[in-house]
Amino acid sequence: MKKPDGKVVLLGDMNVGKTSLLHRYMERRFQDTISTVGGAFYLKQWGPYNISIWDTAGREQFHGLGSMYCRGAAAVILTYDVNNLQSLIELEDRFLALTDTASTDCIFAIVGNKVDLTNEYALLLERADESRPEKPVTSCISTKVQKQVHLDDAVALYKKILKYKMLDEKDVPAAEKMCFETSAKTGYKVDYLFETIFDMVVPIILRQQAEGPPQTVDITNYKSAKRTKSGCCA
Amino acid sequence: RAMVFVLSEAGKPIYSRYGNEEALSSTMGVMMALVSFIQSGDNAIRSIYSDDRKLVFVQQGPLVLVSVSRTLQSEQQLRQELLYVYYQILSMLTQVSITRIFERKKNYDLRRLLAGSEKILDRLLNLVESDPGFLLGAVRCLPLPASQRDALGALLQKAITPNLVFSILVAQSQLVTAVQERAVIEECRLEPTDLHLLLNLIGASSAFQAGEIWTPICLPRFNPDGYFYAYISYLDAECTVCLVLLSTDKESFYAVSDCKKRVEEAMRTQGSLQVLSGGLQSPSYSVGQVGVPGYPGELPPAAPVHQRQLSSSPSPELEGPYCSEEEQQRLFDLYHYLHSRIHSTSRPLRLIYHVAEKETLLAWVTSKFELYTCFSPLVTKAGAINVLTKLLRWIKKEEDRLFIRYPPKYSTTPNPGKGTKGGRPDGAENGFFAGL
Ligand SMILES: Nc1nc2c(ncn2[C@@H]2O[C@H](COP(=O)(O)OP(=O)(O)O)[C@@H](O)[C@H]2O)c(=O)[nH]1
Ligand SMILES: [Mg+2]
């Protein structure tokens, strides 16, 4: 197999819809009953590049696998549920730290999923109408609720991430560009999300390749890390 | 079917079969009150019988499991069912972690860690109540000529990498072959229970062919406190054939994924997928195949056969009056009943000849096998024994095809640099492996 050139990781609490987003993008459909066991690895051909995508379960911190999924990542997609404020808070509290092993120039996207359930959805559709070829399935939206998390909250989180990563706003993509609202159920902005990310990952791949193959560094990293670890393990 | 609840010692709902925990929290409250009341007297409740139902309680560490049932199932079986649920929870979280979590915070909401896995437990309970393998503690294996099974085993033996411990090939939840690291000592081989839990976990998750799964998993019977890292991938577009590779190294995803590519490649050149789909299409065995001469109006002998050391149990396709789901369930309940009689702790039996309303059943247990059969109500005892003898002769002849007799092994050469850590599940501190 061709080694993947770049790595994208989906992180976020259980049930926010990470697997559904990936299903929608890769398989063009939505399945109501999806359950994830741990992490799942997918390969996506993007132009001449092989991009690997890790879907995670939301228990990574508990299982200590987060750093493995994130190691060397060129992009991290932090996902929350727009109807669940806690899921946004968890991103900062539990998931941000897992990205410490990501590539130094890793890009971050913040994605609020399940917008189809909110009362703002119709409005969003109108605004985005021209650019959307697919007709959304409006019939399945019956119980609309007041949105709990607004785009501003996501933007605020994005800025906190930059601070955490000690990055300058001038050197990274603008918050407005990196905060998305999607619906895996209707497909709203799902392609847009992944394609935007993949396009942004390409320059990172090129830089990583210029500096040496990241995936092999991956394995060497782990070996030296393990050796030191077993040295201090009781 | 049995209602099943799992709650924490503090009374927090963790799981409930059929319905959401909120709606049932009042029921849970009553149960908790009962549990704590009797516990306080140093005398944990085991079960409560009312006119038409049984309540069975099992406490495991900080978890309380409750089953409410109206079926023929014995208390012992309901308890077994609850233990399966407990083990499945362990398979996702391990025993030490659960203990630690509740030590730190008595009223922790364990659903935070189990969200999304209700489906796994729902599916498990449905299986426990319908798959004879659970009743018998054996895993159903795909009938396959021995030469073909050996060829597939050999292929798995070649596709190895350090710290790989088990390689398992499965076709539609039926075991094709399982290869294990030589260093795993005899008594700690892959347990049928663990295999059931693993296969259930896989079956309950969405299958799509493009993805490869890498997940921590605990095999609680093997070691309730340690994780393996499971690589799971389907080998065909229809997601029927599944490869499961268990490693003790959580970082070995790419190496293990590479093993899968080698397996895939070798299977392609050997045409193994066609062999397997052939095996899947032919019914496991029909009563006709056994060559039992017909009795007028005879019912099919339904015979989950279990050979103790082999961990496998084919059953024939159910025929005739047992085509409907209700009838199958009814028959299965009868088997459950016989099973409980035969394995009764107070008075175990070797042979039961049971004349029921619509059929006559015969159950037989020896040190080598356990056999459950069902006949027309008109059968005579001599007639039934005669059929059994023929059936056993047929099974003996077909043994190599129906069972996995000698699971193959490999040596993934624990990396000397890694010292004794190689070949142990993560976090395991017990000497499960030989040669430590
Ligand atoms: N209405 C709605 N439901 C969704 C959406 N995305 C996911 N879901 C549902 O939310 C639940 C969790 O989704 P899943 O993809 O498994 O979440 P994950 O745990 O983050 O992978 C499932 O029942 C999905 O059907 C969405 O965009 N809209
Ligand atoms: Mg998921």
TrEMBL record, chain A:
Signal peptide: none annotated. It is found in: Cytoplasmic vesicle membrane; Cytoplasmic vesicle, Phagosome membrane; Golgi apparatus. It catalyses: GTP + H2O = GDP + phosphate + H(+). It is a lipid-anchor. One of its GO terms (biological process) is cellular response to type II interferon. Its EC number is 3.6.5.2. Its cofactor is Mg(2+). Keywords: Cytoplasmic vesicle, Golgi apparatus, GTP-binding, Hydrolase, Lipoprotein, Magnesium, Membrane, Metal-binding, Nucleotide-binding, Prenylation, Protein transport, Transport. One of its GO terms (molecular function) is G protein activity. GO terms for cellular component: Golgi apparatus; phagocytic vesicle membrane. PROSITE patterns: RAB (PS51419). CDD domains: Rab20. Belongs to the small GTPase superfamily. Rab family. NCBIfam families: small_GTP. This is Ras-related protein Rab-20.
From TrEMBL, chain B:
GO terms for biological process: early viral transcription; late viral transcription; protein targeting to vacuole; vesicle-mediated transport. Residues 163-263 form the FUZ/MON1/HPS1 second Longin domain. GO terms for cellular component: Mon1-Ccz1 complex. It comes from the Eukaryota. Residues 3-124 form the FUZ/MON1/HPS1 first Longin domain. Residues 308-399 form the FUZ/MON1/HPS1 third Longin domain. InterPro entries: FUZ/MON1/HPS1_longin_1, FUZ/MON1/HPS1_longin_2, FUZ/MON1/HPS1_longin_3, Mon1. Belongs to the MON1/SAND family. Plays an important role in membrane trafficking through the secretory apparatus. This is Vacuolar fusion protein MON1 homolog.
